[in-house]
Amino acid sequence: MNFGDFHFLRPAWFLALLPVAGLLFAVWTRKGDRSRWLRVCDAELLPHLLMGAGGARRSWGLWLLAASWLLTVTALAGPTWERQPMPVYRAAAARVIVLDLSPSMNASDLKPSRIERARFKLRDILERSREGRTGLVVFGGEPHVVTPLTDDTATIEAMLPALSVDIIPARGDRGAPAMRMAAELLENAGAKDGEILLLSDGVADGADTLATAHQLAGNGVRVSLIGVAGDSAVPVPGAEGGFEVGSEDVPRMAVFDEEFMRRVARAGGGEYQRLTPGDEDLAGVLDSGPSREIDDARRQGTGGERWVDRGGWLLAPLVLLAAAGFRRGWLVCLLFVPMIPVTPAQAFEWEALWWRPDQRAEDALVRGDPETAAELFEDPRWRSAARYQSGQYTGAAEGFAAEDDPDAHYNRGNALARDGKLRDALAAYDQALAEDPGNEDARFNRELVESLLKKQEQQGEQGEQGEQGEQGEQGEQGEQGEQGEQGEQGEQGEQGEQGEQGEQGEQGEQ
Predict the structure, then answer these.
(1) Which of 229, 301, 406, 433 is the most exposed place for a label (fewest CB within 10 A)?
(2) What region does 188 belong to: left with phi over 0, alpha with psi -120 to 50, or beta?
């Protein structure tokens, strides 16, 4: 035992000794009553005159209670002097994927196209990001949030078919604003060791992107890149077919600068890989940095120490003191304890003494516990936001529906979309745009949900047409079968008539 490390894990429990100290002080001061009577009465007569004489001798019960109280409080304070290794690791670092949806991503040097290959790669990334939280940002001339940080990667996968160059209102290729938006998502979610993964075939704002990557690395955010392009320059597809042309009516070429992409990754403290058909690129980008360190800690089963609470050893003397409670009159009151109606016990939290519920809920949200935050928040909007982050989309939509402003309608649309109620989400986005026509995020999400809804309807129509086609073929076969039966009946009728005529002929001959 190293007494130099001796301390208490929860020293605030010693405040509970104050009531006992006050009780003992009151008992001690009562001894002065006898001394005052001695001034006017003989000491031999005093025991026979005073009621409760000898009470000082019987005050040992109070001292026994005080000793029990002291042992209990000391045990609750958590005496400790020993460290113990503990296998700890944190969840995988939060990652925001930034996808390039500039016009050049429609190029077909990678088959079937760069954007299609990027979507395939996104599925692989999401499949390997099940443990941590993942977000998705897309950009062209401006950035847009598709999904904030969430551990529900299935929702992001459902959005992938709708990601195309056409959904970005402003054509362009600016990566820096998208990276800053991704960093804001990490900061708002309280992610301390965040990571940004950029899938792009190049950006137009190279200097700004390089400076932004360097700044994010200084703030603890790691930036990695996957280059989505072939080996040669290709014309940039136009919005309405053909190719984009420059000032001299010459097709504009998409030139992939791989060395620049490497420089951005180095500035962001991350890794760069060229997109490959297999998982070689992901092995280099995802299996390094913070995620690798976490996996190593998990495999080794180490990573931290904790102080061992030795307060349990004080229970043994406490039990011995409790045995003295069998003295007459002490345990009689305990017989009535089971008869007293009690309410379920609730854990006491010191934070409740000086933090409002909304403050405790905000702290839980920052610590990555949105479920607890949703239960603690008294503010309806914050409670709805916490429900959204915890995946309670139905409850979040109901909470946002109680508010009547553009932001509430926009948030309600997001919750309904993630709950699979796409038509209701469109109505919510329309209401948000009607009150705030400049809300580009609402407009972008509306177009995204509308494209998803159209694809669902097209798939439903194709399914109905297939069923109708099968029924039509069965109907035609049935009609042909009936016609065949009628033909057989006709042949039988003709044979019957011929037989009758033959008999009549025979009769004539007779």
Answers:
(1) 301
(2) alpha
- Per-residue pLDDT tens over the stretch 169-206: 888 899 999 999 999 999 888 776 789 999 999 999 99
- CA gyration radius, the chain: 40
Q: What is the pTM of this model?
A: 0.49
Q: Which residue has the tokens 């194709």?
A: 462
φ and ψ at residue 90, rounded to 5 degrees: -95, 165
Q: Look-up: residue for tokens 């930034």?
A: 98
Structural contact between residues 268 and 223, judged by C-beta atoms closer than 8 angstroms: yes
SS3 state of residue 172: coil
Query: pLDDT above 70 covers what percent of the chain?
Result: 68
pLDDT (mean) for 92-99: 84
Angle at 45 between CA 40 and CA 49, to 5 degrees: 85
Give CA separation, 236 vs 112, 142, 145, 209, in Å.
Answer: 15, 19, 25, 21
Question: How many Cα atoms occupy the beta-carbon half-sphere of 424 within 13 Å?
Answer: 15
Q: ∠ at Cα 9 (5, 11), nearest 5°?
A: 110
DSSP state of 338: G
Residue 62, both tokens:
């109070």
C-beta of residue 167 within 8 angstroms of C-beta of residue 448: yes
What are residue 384's phi and psi, to 5 degrees?
-65, -40
Cβ(432)–Cβ(442) below 8 Å = yes
Of 142, 128, 144, 140, nearest in space to 95 by CA? 128
Provide DSSP, 155-171. HHHHHGGG--GGG-SS-
* String of DSSP letters for 469-503: HHHHHHHHHHHHHHHHHHHHHHHHHHHHHHHHHHH
